[in-house]
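Agenda item 2: phosphoric acid mono(formamide)ester complex prediction
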Amino acid sequence: MNLAPASTKAWHRKHLLGIEELTREECAAILDTADSFSEISSRSRKKVPALQGRVVFNLFFENSTRTRTSFSLAAKRLSADTQDFSAATSSLSKGESFIDTAKNIEAMGADVLVVRHSTPGAPHLLAQHVKASIINAGDGAHEHPTQALLDLLTIRRAKGKIEGLTVGLVGDIAHSRVARSNIHALNKFGAHVIVCGPPTLVPRSMERLGCEVAHHLDDVLPRLDVVNALRIQFERIHKGFIPFPSVSEYLHFYGMTIERMRVAKPDLLILAPGPINRGVELTPEVADGPNSAILDQVTNGLAVRMAVLYLLSGRTHPHPHEHEAHAAGIKPGRTAEHHAE
Ligand code: CP
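Presented output:
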């Protein structure tokens, strides 16, 4: 089985900081590699030695369930050593800076730092100060590149294509890094993007990113092939700013309900990045219903993160201790197929 698609030749980057700067070919290289790696997760022995000897550190300064655990598991499936860093119990509380923290982690031999931070641009800052590869796992309301890539992969698998589809990003666009990364990704692949939500949460400036802006979901719903129901980011909404009168009104105007599913295309694909607020962005009947691919997104996220780790650290950038890989029976420059057991 070919685990290294030809499109990986498009990948030459050391870091994954955002979707905006990637080409369509680079995004496709990640998706194609993820397709190849999905097969590993269906094996009884879910492990290949591709990143043996590499060290992947998760530096999460914000909470996470899906992203952190799937990066950890992805690294383990590729035989890398992984370590989680807990900001809450770290020496940040004693005044150590963000950059010093990362440099100290790197001094332990980290090859890849997976970084989530509430400040937009924090991973970009680290990329200028450390030698390790940096993966942006979400920086404030700026970008969440692996989320957009797993969303693309889920759409491509469900619909067989991305080009020509109309995708609705519904909800809190203003505070959403998922929205920004999705807009960049979907534009590159030729989808039409409609951002829809209350005017308080959908800035008109989104039109400059090449999207259609709508405030009435019922008007645009029949045109949509995919709805990505974005979470209301209550934690990013400033105290005193009330974006809608009540949760029940939000559900009434923007929530994906069984009633709305009846006027949507029968094969409408329902996505949500998670965590979901049941009864706010979508009802349980829709979240758990036949059109929902929400858990497929999580499964695909593991394959995407394996692909990103592999492309960043396993193939295109020879490791300084490559002789160790030789000792482990892995030849540098060989493909994932050769690394697969
Ligand atoms: N979608 C997402 O990023 O989820 P987590 O915050 O749980 O990682």
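Discussion summary: The pocket of phosphoric acid mono(formamide)ester is lined by residues 64-67, 138, 147, 273-275 (CB under 6 Å).
Owner for follow-up: CH.
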